[in-house]
Amino acid sequence: MRVLGIGWLGSRSAAFQEMVNFASNVLGMTLTNLQSDLAVFKMPNGDEFQLFGPQNSNLPYTDQPVAGFLVEDVAIARAEMEAKGVVFLGEIEEWNGFAWTYFRAPDGRVYELTHRVK
């Protein structure tokens, strides 16, 4: 398995609209999808930053941002990590051109493996 980069970052915020404005107007990110409780920003290299409103349940881990390590193939990388004793939380999921799967690292935090679906 080879990590290619950080392909995705998700964060929940009670200050949802303020964070949308910050990402757009201060960081200069390109907003590609805005809903009442979800904002998706796409980077020039295809990576995504997603903001979740406080009522959005699509980011299941609410106490921290979740980073997605970009790999060539989520299923293959997951199998390699499982063989090394890593515990995954749920199945592989797909949405908006990405596939991902969550795991818990030795620090107790949740991360994910992700790849762009071809």
- Proportion in helices: 10-25%
| The CATH superfamily title | 2,3-Dihydroxybiphenyl 1,2-Dioxygenase, domain 1
Q: In CATH terms, what is the architecture?
A: Roll
Instruction: Specify the CATH class.
Output: Alpha Beta
**First-residue to last-residue Cα separation:** 19 Å
CATH fold assignment: 2,3-Dihydroxybiphenyl 1,2-Dioxygenase, domain 1
In the residues, how many domains can be counted? 1
- Mean pLDDT across the residues is 91
Q: What are the low-pLDDT stretches, counting only 5+ consecutive residues below 50? A: none
Structural class by secondary-structure content: alpha+beta
- SSE order, as H and E? EHEEEEHEEE
Separate helix tally? 2
Q: What does the radius of gyration come to?
A: 14 Å
Which keywords apply here?
single chain, 118 residues, 2,3-Dihydroxybiphenyl 1,2-Dioxygenase, domain 1, eight-stranded mixed beta sheet, 2 helices, 8 strands, globular
Would you mind describing this structure in some detail?
The chain has an eight-stranded mixed beta sheet, with helices on one face. The model has no long low-confidence stretch (mean pLDDT 91). Helices cover 18% and strands 43% of the residues. The protein has helices spanning 16-26, 74-83; strands at 5-12, 30-35, 38-42, 48-52, 66-70, 88-95, 98-104, 110-116. The longest helix has 11 residues, at 16-26. The chain is globular, with a radius of gyration of 14 Å. The chain starts with a strand and ends with a strand. Strand 2 and strand 3 (38-42) form a beta hairpin. It has 118 residues and is an alpha+beta fold. It has one domain (5-116): 2,3-Dihydroxybiphenyl 1,2-Dioxygenase, domain 1, CATH 3.10.180.
